[in-house]
User: Fold these one by one.
Assistant:
Number 1:
Amino acid sequence: MLDKNGIAKRISRELRDGYYVNLGIGIPTLVANYIPDGMNVVLQSENGLLGMGPFPFEGEEDPDLINAGKQTITTVPGSVFFDSAMSFGMIRAKKVDLTILGAMEVSDQGDIANWKIPGKMVKGMGGAMDLVASAKNIIVAMQHVNKAGESKLLPACTLPLTGVRCVKRIVTELAVVDVTEAGFKLLERAPGISVDQIKNATAGRLVIEGDIPEMVL
């Protein structure tokens, strides 16, 4: 199965030249390290940056230069800083071509829960609510199962929702699946992972058609 960097590397294959992309907190931030050479992709951070680069090397961090998850980052030539009002204006005006988010749960109808676990203190939903409501395309980067081995791809989310029927594709340590009217459609297997393993790890409806190829990373 894939580690977090493997998930990010597979998602980088979804990028297209000229895309404006927002990377959510967690695994999605790692996608910045795997943008194909020669591809022009502009990364947007909702705390006010257009033109985010990969993570800095150790010792080269600038504590004043962070992403929405408070991680130190780099910029690329031509990057620009602005206030939150302009940042969310870009998002709400659907200027972002692709949003990549982490999730705690996704339903087989495309609902996403990624902001709150009951009983734990959180500051609020943050920018996720705008991103799921306004993005042209949403890909989720997440673990297929939790630490107890229980599926996180469900018939219905049990945690408070961030968005409804908004997720298009999910990449996990086990598989790539699309959200369809019939449920999760299995597109690819992680290297060394069988279809039966994915079946056993998926609580929601799973559509399997024909031979399922392994991911190309």
Number 2:
Amino acid sequence: MEGWAVKKQLMNTELPFDSVLPEYGRKKLLMYADSFRDLASTFTDIRNRDMIENQMEDRQEYLWKKRLVENRDLMADHLNEMAQIMTQVAEESYRPLPLSERKIKQLVHDLREQKILLREIFLLEKEDGHKEINVEMRAVKGAGFTVEAVGNLLSAIVGLHLMPSCLSPIFVAREWTCYQYLEEPRFHVLTGAAKAVKETETISGDNYSFMDIKEGSLTAVLSDGMGSGEKACKDSELVIDLVEKFLEAGFSKETAVQMINGSLLAGGEQQNMSTLDLCQIDLYSGNCEFIKIGSAPSYIKRDNLMEQISARNLPLGVFYEMDMEVTRRRLVDGDYIILLSDGILDALSQGIGEEMLPEMLGKINMRNPAEIANHILNFCIHQSRGKIRDDMTVLVIGVWENL
């Protein structure tokens, strides 16, 4: 077993938090972040100067320069967000935690029985309190042990519920490879979706996505394009695609929404208006955040009780300045989150009325999110006497505590 003599003192000594990056790399990244902030300030200064100068311009010239100022504002926001991402990466830190020599020897023995050789192991704690284990190991010829099975051995030995990172392969490779195991979140989720296309169209103008942007979280996004058919589908598909790309790049939800709105406004005369319903769940804490832009109400179902989450604002691509709020809730075991497109409310208005929707949802006793989504959709189609006057989409997320 290689490397233990050098690492033994580290593994048995609890150390203070330290930067993930080497000092030189950390300072360089912080320097770049300051440069982006300075550049953003430059755009802001230009905006303030132009606003004074534009007071005496004629209307057409004023509107043109106003649009230019708005674009500069958007650029400044983007630069500030990039600086913030760089700062977060530069200041990310961890603390090595001790692993007893007895536990290490036990793990080495158990892995050797499965024809797995262990070279190094580190138990780390992040600033948010979540723990992870990094293991360097390889399989000898003929072995077929899974990375998940190694995680089960680690969990039993260190006393943590661990899971492989989402980028891990299925089997342990024959070359020396580093594998990351993360502390299992407190909650897990199941999702379900149901859709119906407007009866005069062949393609839905609604699009949605369930995204694992980072370990231990789930983001659900639903977008309803203006109108119906192929044009509406492309508009809402663009919104979903941009949300995925911006969040994966590390931008905050709020900045991502603002940047998407700016992108749609840049379309000029080819106006691309779409709603946005975004729900993000932290599976470690149970905290849930909603951002709603021009979308239908969402609901949190807790047994027979219903809470409505709504916002009275216009869709994306209408105004540069958006009325955007983040609604926060704490979820508990057995909660369901229900996201709907406007077509669901339109269908209900043909029958019992949309104001009766919470009562109907509260009476649902099903547990499978897919079954709940289909039940809601079929109920609404029945209320509109089988006629589908608009695209309809239902997303359901069930939340349960891990045992």
Number 3:
Amino acid sequence: MSKENYQIRTMRKDEVELAVSWAEKEGWNPGKNDAQSYCLADPKGFLIGLVEGEPVAVISAIKYSKEFGFIGFYIVKPEYRGKGYGYALWQAAMAYLDGCNVGLDGVVEQQDNYRKSGFELAYRNIRYQGVFKASQFDVASHLSPHITSEFEPVCIQTFEAPFFPADRKRFNQQWRIQSNAHALVINTPDGITGYGVIRACECGYKIGPLYAENQVDAKALVGALIARAVDSDKADTVYLDVPECNQEAVSMAKSLGMSIAFETARMYTKSAPSLPLHRMFGVASFEIG
């Protein structure tokens, strides 16, 4: 690597779109409109490495607070791998998050390298996939009177807050109103007891986040979300990223006939945050947490 020809800087908004397109080529299947939401999480948190002006490496280092950050989108163009460009960008990202407890979802082949950088395994996330038609789901279930797309933003913000170790209201708000997305809640007389978002991806749809008090509620939300987004007669693939430590979530995915697509390791540089994983049936994003 020639340091003289290598520049690392913050991405422009259009370059975040580039990072998303690279993620698509890697087979990560990002959402069609993810970039705008990601920018709101931390406008300074996307870094790019350029050789003589050509983008060769990207990474996200989202600083949610002074205490917590998240690494993702770590991609080097294939012809530039093994030359030090990626590692230099990694060091810049970690320097930006200095002092934070840093989380990431590590693909299997990189987990040993992340351990060398001080990351420790907290649990595995499993991506499940299944092929569904909207017509498969009975939207007239006993929960349907409580499942709605109408909710007060303040109420959903309060409900979501415990599921993430830092405030990310701007990201969450954009995530649920992005194009080709649907957000539903279970709104009972006692308040919100479940919440989920489904969004169109380069291939099929992803559900995430998916939060619920129990498996019954989570499964009802999955059915209602698919009924909203997927064509009634044409089958499409739906993905759900499940914390393996939530066995109710694993059981639900299997009961829907979903199969394992791949796994990641949720890792942190410090102690794993205390989160209600038993109520977390789907992760919002492997890329930024």
